[in-house]
Amino acid sequence: MLRKETNGFSYDFYEPKDVKKDISIVLFHGWGSTVESQKELATRLTKHGYSVIVPEIIYHDDRQPLGNYLSKEIKYAYFWKTVMVSIDEASAFYKLLNIPTENLVLMGISMGGFIVNGTIAAHDQFAGLVNINGSGSFVLSEQLFRVMDDQPEMTDKEKQLLENYDPIKKGRLKAPILMLHGTQDTQVSIEGQKNYYTYLTEQLRKTNVFFNEYSDINHTISDEMIEDLIQWLNQLTLS
């Protein structure tokens, strides 16, 4: 693994010994997590021939870390701000990588899933999208968060801001999509993924989208999820 820093962005780069195909994976971690926490998964993916890039996310690691990520006050002040800043800075970051975006698969776990969904909806020129225990339905997911945390409903201003980034409002998405989610997830409800899958398949009529549910899995990544991910990556073809 190599730590790289350029123009204000830092990321870990994992290079495989044997390149399987000309695809690199950009892996975004979840809320309150770290770049280092993705080492095991990134290393496992390189063993299958894929380069993996794990970027530092705003308000995490060395980019203005927040401290107590379990605090509801911090979560509601910074969760969506983190997602939105990451989407906004996507173009600058991918330009610095010097890798054609057509060769990049965006992959996100939990909050990272929100980030990559928002990014690909705004800049649909990537090789594929993987969302694990996240959501592509921003407004619905925030409504579910607030019910779960016994928080007041969104104001009209808050809802409008989310709608500006909500992938469910974007009529694009040519790239293949893989969504994996545990049915017993108590942190990010699977209903957000279900709603987004319905939008993709019924309204956009996408046929290159796959949604796998995993019984008795909470907010974690199982071996079965990783096996399904690797199988999907191995079958992925570049346009």
Automatic annotation (TrEMBL):
The keyword Hydrolase applies. Its EC number is 3.4.-.-. Gene3D superfamilies: alpha/beta hydrolase. Keywords: Hydrolase. Residues 93-223 form the Peptidase S9 prolyl oligopeptidase catalytic domain. Pfam families: Peptidase_S9. This is Alpha/beta hydrolase family protein.
